């Protein structure tokens, strides 16, 4: 009947789904400062980008999920003194990538912590609900550690889009 915890945790181990990087029709990214106004900046950037890309009925879902992913990155992945210490070096980056019938939003942050939904029966709680919202509104999501010289991880969410006419 309901969703059990193991189903919720399953996407955490997934890397990005097999989407051909050469088939990306559009891509955009923006660096975000380590302060909470960055959530508003991310929303504005996403709205402007989606206006150009015509995300159709998924527009609001994508904006909501971007807000949650960026909030999570700022709340859980950025050291408390990062914003004051290094204002010029943004440590969170938002990427939007569009394929013909898919859109992926990905947020890069410097933490190695596994993103995990908080165990809480309090559905009115302000904190700890972000990944449940992402799971509810996106068609898939996951995360993977960054490779090579890049430190941290990427948390992504994927949306199916209606075919273009």
Task: Provide a descriptive summary of the structure in words.
The chain has 165 residues and is of the alpha+beta class. Helix content is 32%, strand content 22%. It is built from 5 helices and 5 strands, in the order αβαααββαββ. It has a 5-stranded antiparallel beta sheet with strand order 1-2-3-5-4, with helices on one face. β2 (92-98) and β3 (102-109) form a beta hairpin. α2 packs antiparallel against α3 (59-77) and α3 runs antiparallel to α5 (130-137). It starts with a helix and ends in a 5-residue tail after the last strand.
Return the average pLDDT rounded to an integer: 79
Q: Helix share of residues? A: 25-40%
Gyration radius over CA: 16 Å
Tell me, briefly, the overall form: globular
Largest sheet: 5 strands, antiparallel
In DSSP terms, counting alpha (H) and pi (I) runs of 4 or more, how many helices? 5
Structural class, by secondary structure, is alpha+beta
Across the major sheet, the strand order is 1-2-3-5-4
Head-to-tail CA distance between termini = 38 Å
């Amino acid at each position: 009947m309901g969703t059990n915890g193991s189903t919720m945790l399953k996407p955490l181990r997934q890397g990005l789904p097999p989407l051909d990087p050469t088939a990306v029709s559009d891509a955009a990214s923006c660096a975000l400062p380590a302060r909470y106004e960055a959530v508003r900046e991310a929303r504005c950037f996403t709205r402007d980008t989606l206006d150009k890309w015509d995300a159709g009925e998924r527009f609001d879902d994508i904006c909501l999920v971007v807000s949650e992913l960026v909030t999570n990155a700022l709340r859980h992945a950025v050291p408390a003194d990062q914003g004051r210490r290094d204002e010029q070096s943004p440590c969170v980056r938002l990427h939007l990538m569009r394929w013909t019938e898919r859109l992926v939003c990905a947020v890069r942050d410097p933490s190695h912590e596994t993103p995990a939904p908080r165990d809480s029966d309090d559905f009115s709680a302000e904190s700890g609900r972000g990944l449940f919202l992402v799971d509810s509104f996106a068609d898939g999501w996951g995360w993977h550690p960054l490779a090579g010289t890049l430190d941290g991880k990427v948390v992504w969410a994927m949306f199916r889009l209606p075919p273009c006419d």
